[in-house]
């Protein structure tokens, strides 16, 4: 296998934040399957009710690295930060589609980085438009 060292960083504002750790574990397992990866450990999801930091955190160790999701649901729309790092190729569009269909995107920002020899940004064609025009913003 040729190592890829691809890193997708996502900041999403979402209308339907996940709150149930068990349901989030299922979501993470399905996401790993959708991007054709293999779970090595986890997923591990936990809900924090600490004021100011209330929300769900989930991590999964995949055969080629990791996926981490943090959600803050005290704000509206809720804030989701997501990190997908893999040494195998994956399609970020599959992740964007899952975020839209499962959590209802209000805003999506991302960077896709090639970490093989530096921190070079990988240009992506814009994801398919969501219900509201002008919703997506690639982080400059």
Could you explain how this protein is built, in words?
Helices cover 19% and strands 42% of the residues. Mean pLDDT is 88; it is low at 131-140. It has a single domain, classed as S-adenosylmethionine decarboxylase. Strands 1, 2, 3, 4, 5, 6, 7 and 8 form an 8-stranded mixed beta sheet that branches. The radius of gyration is 15 Å and the shape is globular. The longest helix has 14 residues, at 21-34. A hairpin with a 5-residue loop joins strand 6 and strand 7. The chain has helices spanning 21-34, 92-103, and strands at 6-14, 39-48, 55-62, 65-72, 78-86, 105-114, 120-121, 136-138. It is an alpha+beta fold and 140 residues long.
Helical element count? 2
Shape assignment: globular
Alpha carbon gap, first and last residue: 32 Å
- What number of domains? 1
Largest sheet: 8 strands, mixed
Q: What's the β-strand tally?
A: 8
Order of helices and strands: EHEEEEHEEE
